[in-house]
Specification:
The chain has 162 residues and is mostly helical. It has five helices and two strands, in the order ββααααα.
């Protein structure tokens, strides 16, 4: 729906808010279906959802390992990250990305793990810097690191794997 507003000089200004909003809701709605897609926008939304689910598993392991088992926060963060990687891989290949660049699932998983290993290193560096230098709580540092590393993971996977 596009509405027009009259300007002081007699000109017209088109309001495209509803048009943009309708488009955004369509992308979100289409992202929530189980239908395969080749739309990068839908893949990005689905990847955000998968990352959210993976983050819940990751954060649960991190907090459980640190608070209940008494493991050092960086070791606990690595364990949580690995749990999140497994969740992310399974959901990515079954729901987010419908095309694959590599024929071998073994090679695909190996490249996925390499991307995630670099992501883990970046994740741990961000967490350590935020906790040690800026004195942030490890849980808040984990949230910040996760947001930053999401973009690394998505674009590297899209470029190399899907």
């Amino acid at each position: 729906m596009i509405s027009e507003h009259k300007l002081a000089g007699g000109g017209k200004l088109k309001n495209t808010l509803f048009k943009t909003s309708d488009w955004s809701w369509k992308i979100i709605k289409d992202s929530l279906t189980l239908q395969p897609t080749n739309s990068r926008k839908i893949e990005l939304v689905r990847s955000l959802i998968v990352s959210g689910v993976s983050f819940v598993g990751d954060a649960f392991i991190l907090i459980f390992a640190k608070e209940i088992l008494g493991i050092h926060y960086l070791v606990a963060a690595a364990l949580g990250f690995l749990c999140g990687v497994v969740i992310n891989y399974v959901l990515s290949v079954t729901w987010v990305f419908t095309t694959r660049k590599l024929a071998s699932k073994h090679i695909e998983f190996t490249v996925f793990v390499v991307i995630c290993t670099v992501g883990l290193g970046l994740n741990l560096l961000v967490i350590a810097a935020l906790v040690e230098r800026f004195l942030l709580d490890y849980r808040l540092a984990k949230v910040v690191a996760t947001v930053l590393i999401f973009f690394w993971n998505f674009f590297m996977r899209k470029k190399l794997l899907y």
